[in-house]
Amino acid sequence: MLTITNLYKTFNPGTINEKIVLNGLELKLEPADFVTIIGGNGAGKSTVLNMIAGVHFPDEGSITLGGVDITKLPEYVRAKYLGRVFQDPMLGTAADMEIEENLALAYRRGKKRGLSWGITKPEKEQYVELLKTLDLGLETRLTSKVGLLSGGQRQALTLLMSTLKNPKLLLLDEHTAALDPKTARKVLELTEQIITKNSLTALMVTHNMKNAIQYGNRLIMMHEGKIIYDVSGEEKKKLQVSDLLEKFENASGGEFANDRMILA
Predict the structure, then answer these.
(1) Which residue in 7, 149, 156, 163 could disulfide with 61, CB within 3.0 to 4.6 Å?
(2) What's the Cα-to-Cα distance from 222 to each of 36, 102, 218, 225, 229, rounded to whole Å?
(3) Cβ atoms < 10 Å from Cβ of 211
(4) The Cα angle at residue 233 between residues 229 and 238, in degrees rounded to 5
């Protein structure tokens, strides 16, 4: 479903602030893979997602999605193939619009716009059923402004919107990092349910090692723009946080120095 080949990216080349973010990255995802990505600050985790989404273009290398070379496609063209949820719950929704209006925008993504009636009755019925799956009571608040929702409710809604059209690839960029632990757990459970139910292929960047182990069928660890550890199946299920720290030391030759991830 996704093939990344020999990907390089350097920010601010030739200056005092030069930073090599991706250094010959190689990654391949099969259909329905749910891959978690961990690594220290500056490892290149979010940059990988931005490269796939078209926010940045690589200096070298290629990205193929579902057999289509998207390396040089602009961001708006790739958007119809991708779903994305950001760390900030405010980024994925339009605060001044109603819940049903936000869902309608997501539903029409990639379609030609016309002058037909805005939201049909069958559509509303579909949105009610979808919102029921979140178990947050939002199905009775279709006309509520999204700006009135809590961070967790907005993130759950964003997750629903990003998967409404069954994207070829779902990108989750630390999408629970801004939520309290209880709400984060709820959103992660919803994430797993939606991915499993729709057989989606997903990449989830997380700072929480326990979550990286618990969710998904595969885990990769990045360091200095490369993948230094890749584990799946039964081996992944048996992992402990201490194992990940040891693997990092063995692969990188140094101690893991990201307090945020260790404390999480």
Answers:
(1) 7
(2) 11, 35, 13, 6, 7
(3) 19
(4) 80
Looking up tokens 């250094």, which residue turns up? Answer: 23
CATH class held by domain 2-81+167-263: alpha beta
Which amino acid type is present at position 83? G
Most confident of 26-35, 87-96, 235-244: 26-35
pTM (whole model) above 0.85: yes
Percent of the chain with pLDDT over 90: 25
Query: Is the predicted pLDDT of residue 45 greater than 70, yes or no?
Result: yes
Residue 27 has a pLDDT of 93
Average pLDDT over residues 20-32: 92
- Distance, C-alpha 17 to centroid of its chain: 28
Residue 99 CB partners (closer than 8 Å, separation 6+): 127, 131, 138, 141, 142, 143, 144, 146, 149, 157
**How many helices (H) and strands (E) are present in the chain, helices listed first?**
10, 10
pLDDT at 147: 87
Q: Which residue's entry shows tokens 């919107």? A: 161
Between these two residues, 250 and 52, which has the higher pLDDT value?
Answer: 52
> Cα(119)–Cα(14) distance, rounded to whole angstroms?
52
Among 206, 220, 170, 224, CA closest to 8? 224
Neighbours of 106 (CB within 10 A): 19
How many other β-carbons are positioned within 10 Å of the β-carbon of residue 162?
23
